[in-house]
Write a structure and sequence with these properties.
The protein is of the alpha/beta class. It is about 15% helix and about 30% strand. The strands form 6 sheets. Strands 15-18-21-24-27-30-33-36-39-42-44-45 form a 12-stranded mixed sheet, covered by helices on one side. It has an 11-stranded mixed sheet with strand order 1-2-17-20-23-26-29-32-35-38-41, with no helix packed on it. The N and C termini lie far apart (about 70 Å).
Length: about 500
């Protein structure tokens, strides 16, 4: 699956972005003549997660695992995927909305029973049915597409000559609860035995069934009812393999990469999956021209976009709908959430959330951009500064230990160390307006609502409670406007 370089206008400027496409639709060409439907099983309780949150809703690299499963299925499906829901179904439905269709498994009676719930939605609607699981976020479209392709290659053979099932198998010493694949002396698959039903000898087998199947749709819907209730009181979808063999139908298999079919049952499994997904995302950014100094200590969620020739230093966390432009330096130890960072920017030891930095701006160390903060081109924001819901115009310099909130700051402004916009009076927030080329002396307090005209200035420690005209100097506590030839202002 390839990665691509796209041009994004984010906003009003072009940034070359390295996109970590883990699921690239172009790798698989859907046949217009042979329709594929998909069923994603996601009804389980996930009790071993020990969580109030349904297992399928736990995130892997910022994305709930059920979303990963849907993304994968969408690549090969002609129809909207059907998600079989059960425990706390409303959470999955609220998340996915109309992106998928839903079948409900009210009673947890096994995987075969779960697929039965999709019969009314899918019977007669497709030629093939792909079955996957909502708790396998590492499964890639490049792994399941060959199942469909194998079935398609033999589709025009007679029904007795083409396979009823093409399935994935995996070789692994740790069974992780998967059933064992039983073959005859000729190497043909005969049946799947669930781990709970395995004999001592069968448990020694290392070819496992991760439960990913592509079915001949007509055969599947005609034979699902033949599954018998197990001793455990469940209907196993794995029994469809033995049913096909008994009818003389072919069952074929393809090998799967071990990490692709790692299921998640516990939070230990969740951490392993997160490690693999984090590595995949980082590798794709690096292939597309992003330097990541220490991948072991860098976290970039799948939704993040990063421009070419940017450098990501250790300890950096990039989350949500964050966009980083080209030739920018991020970190060390920067956290950026749902924010846009331009080209040639620098962020060091700082936290940025729902904010924007235009080209050439810089922050840190130990700066904080809160919601609605916007640094214009070439803005410098020093250490221990904080900006909230404010715009700092191009070329403005903000000294250390300053706070700017609910303000509009013009071009070329010098914000001295310790400057504070006093925007809250105990009842409401008020705005501060600062014109171009204003000089704010250290420890200036701007008591909003207040405005300062172009080229105005304040003396160190001034407490400004009234508007300052353009070009005027305000000083003192409370500040007053210096008159011409006022020697006390010099």
């Amino acid at each position: 699956m390839g990665d691509k370089l796209k041009l994004y206008n984010v906003p009003e400027r072009k940034i070359a972005i390295s996109v970590a496409y883990l699921y690239e639709p172009s790798i698989y060409e859907k046949s217009p003549m042979i329709k594929v439907a998909s069923v994603i099983l996601a009804a389980g309780y996930g009790t071993r997660m020990k969580s109030d949150l349904p297992k399928m809703m736990h995130p892997v690299m910022g994305c709930p695992m059920i979303v990963w499963a849907v993304q994968t299925a969408e690549v090969v499906s002609h129809l909207r995927p059907v998600v079989v829901v059960g425990h706390r179904k409303e959470l999955i439905q609220d998340l996915l909305g109309t992106r998928v269709r839903y079948a409900e498994q009210a009673e947890m009676l096994g995987t075969g029973h779960a697929v039965m719930q999709a019969t009314a939605l899918l019977k007669g609607q497709s030629d093939m049915v792909l079955v996957t699981y909502g708790d396998m976020p590492l499964l890639r479209s490049s792994t399941i597409a060959p199942l469909v392709e194998r079935m398609q290659a033999q589709w025009h053979s007679s029904s007795t000559e083409r396979p009823a099932i093409v399935m994935l198998t995996v070789e692994r010493a740790d069974a992780q609860g998967f059933g064992r694949v039983i073959r005859n002396a000729r190497g043909e698959i005969q049946k799947i035995v669930e781990e709970a039903d395995c004999t001592v000898e069968q448990k020694k087998l290392t070819e496992l069934n991760p439960g990913i199947y592509c079915f001949d749709a007509e055969w599947l819907w005609d034979n699902l009812s033949a599954i018998e209730l197990s001793a455990k009181g469940e209907y196993y979808l794995t029994d469809m393999v033995a049913i096909a063999v008994q009818q003389g139908r072919l069952v074929e298999s393809l090998p799967a990469p071990v990490e692709d079919v790692d299921g998640i049952n516990t939070r230990v499994h969740l951490s392993h999956a997160t490690t693999v997904m984090r590595r995949r995302i980082l590798e794709r950014h690096m292939v597309n021209g992003v330097t990541i100094i220490d991948p072991q200590n860098t976290y970039i969620e799948d939704s993040v976009l990063v421009g070419q020739d940017s450098v990501i230093w250790p300890g950096t966390v990039l989350q949500g709908q964050t966009v980083i432009g080209s030739h920018s330096t991020i970190g060390p130890h920067a956290q950026i959430v749902n924010s846009t960072i331009g080209n040639h920017c620098r962020v060091i030891y700082s936290f940025i959330e729902q904010a924007r930095m235009d080209d050439g701006s810089e922050i840190g160390p130990f700066g904080h951009l809160r919601k609605g903060a916007h640094l214009g081109e070439g803005v410098h924001m020093g250490n221990f500064g904080e900006v909230k819901n404010s715009y700092l115009g191009p070329g403005t310099k903000m000294g250390h230990f300053s706070y700017i909130g609910d303000a509009t700051v013009g071009r070329g402004v010098n914000i001295g160390a310790g400057t504070v916009t006093c925007n809250y009076d105990g009842r409401a927030k008020h705005e501060t307006q600062i014109g171009d080329n204003v000089f704010l002396g250290s420890d200036t307090m701007l008591v909003a609502p207040v405005s300062l005209g172009d080229a105005a200035a304040t003396g160190a420690g001034a407490v400004v409670t009234k508007d300052v005209p353009p070009g005027a100097l305000a000083y003192g506590v409370p500040a007053h406007i210096a008159k011409p030839n006022d020697s006390s202002s010099t």
